[in-house]
Write a structure and sequence with these properties.
heterodimer, A: about 200 residues, alpha/beta, Aconitase, domain 4, 7-stranded mixed sheet, 9 helices, 7 strands, about 35% helix, B: about 475 residues, Aconitase, domain 3, Aconitase, Domain 2, 5-stranded parallel sheet, 19 strands
Amino acid sequence: MSTNQITELQGRAIPLLADDIDTDRIIPARFLRCVTFDGLGEHAFEDDRLQDDDHPFNQKCFSGARVLVAGRNFGCGSSREHAPQALSRWGVIAIVAESFAEIFFGNCTALGIPAVTLDRERLEALVGDVERDPAVTVTVDLENNEVRWEQTSAPSRIPSSARSALVSGDWDFLSQLLATGDQVRRAAATLPYMAGFPGS
Amino acid sequence: MSTENLFNKVWDLHTVGKLSSGQTQLFVGQHLVHEVTSPQAFAMLRDRGLKVLFPERTLATVDHIIPTDNQVRPFADGMAEEMMLAIETNCDEFGIELLNLGDGRQGIVHVVGPELGLTQPGITLVCGDSHTSTHGAFGAIALGIGTSQVAQVLATQTLAMNRPRVRRIEVSGSLAAGVFAKDVILAIIRRLGVQGGVGFAYEYAGSVFDAMTMEERMTVCNMSIEGGARCGYVNPDQTTVEFLRGRDAVPSGESFERAAAWWLSLASSPDASFDDHVTIDGSMIEPTVTWGIHPGQSVGVGETILGPSEYPVEERAGVTEALEFMGLEAGQGICGQAIDVAFIGSCTNSRLSDLREAAAIARGQKVAAGVRALVVPGSQKVAAQAEEEGLDRIFTEAGFQWRAAGCSMCLAMNPDKLQGREMCASSSNRNFKGRQGSPTGRTLLMSPAMVAAAAIQGRVTDVRQWDTVS
């Protein structure tokens, strides 16, 4: 499992400090007409990009950036895993935001993409520094719960279950869940709607 | 009986064990599957040589991509056809029942589950769709999940979850005439915000919910996710029991009475504890309409839209962006806003009672010139019942298009889409930028009755004054 361990990720950052960015904006529904996740990367934020030449995902200086910096309630709305899949295929390996919607957060963890939060003040400082110099390298350090860039080291947060899964490499939950087959059948057999409603 | 709330009782009952991450491994009583979020999950099973563990606890339908006019196969959209073939092959290969177009029971996944009696109190139910929260109306824990989790549930009938906290939202008093379940949930989201529910399951309670039908409860629970909550539920009561009596998937005879007794025993006890508590006066809720680009940006139909400076600092940028996108101005009322399209449908509001409420407005009227109006029933069964009652004729005589069951213009993965900057009065659940299929299309969320009134007047209209207006 060691190859799955995610402790520290580094890359240039792409700033998108807007709030309530929903998953329809991350990947518009027409691109969900597919049976694989292949090719979604090029369509990330497509409609926003078409309406705004200055959208960060359109700017050359951010091409190749790997750490997405976003605002409050990032990834709200539809549960489509196509959203983190599209970001991942665009090149994003970690997301730093003020906060996340829950299903999106869970989908990120399931793909091994750490989604950590920073205070707004520090997030704005990070975005300011990255906009001033897009070459700045940002480090997302899960072991120490920190996001670092230039001379700054900011405390980050991530739910302990996600952190533990990513750091230990156990974020492929399917393998873990499969290991408990007998327990699952036993638990199922105790449920009234499986075993028969009480009172007979 | 336990002093726990329903959520914790049902959670504990379904707990298989703890995972190394500290998360709970939760057993899933019912898994619903649709064509958009499942093909990659089935591929993951194939890659690993896995089977579906409980195919009898899994049911599939098709809803998102199907055209609601011409359903002749192969579909004109080759990608949609490929997705249809994929779910047909997958269900066949993995032994899962599929409610296909010719079945007579096909429809939006969150309409068909309850309709067939698969959604029951005390179960855990999941689907690769955020609006799975709908099923909480029955006192179930109903969770929307991603595709990796769909694969996990197919293969293990379990998923890894952190236990959310539980917030009780009590809506007291009673609703005024012309105020519907849709207005209740829009008012709740307006009050608590689109992120206010993060980390919570919402328990909806109080006299307004006690008086609601199951269909109304489903409308509210459906949009729990729009308030950021992981799920929402209403405690089972006699209304729940009577809705389920006689449905295909529930036991019959003496066995039904035993089931009903167990269902009722799960309700949160009067002294149950909660992590948070909110009270809202139901009699103060107005017909509510969104003016912005998320479902928390709404006003009562009699109110004016506030400007950015009247919002907390952290919301101002979002309000400015929303007003600009919508082409609306601070200080204007939403009432009287002209519309181009009217859409009645979606997992929020496409059930028989929704269609009846809209038809009551549309009867003997005409859709305004220049307005394109669609009514899309939530399932083939809803369509059949509506046709039996003659609702389809009321709509078509008024100039609405009467379509076949599906998600239609709620999310525009099918041919039903807004064009350009069209303004749409919609009974759906999301007013996000581009949601209805045009990147610049605009959505005003409201109740089905309000959509019908807007279609006829050509502009947003206060349905409480319908008799005078029309």
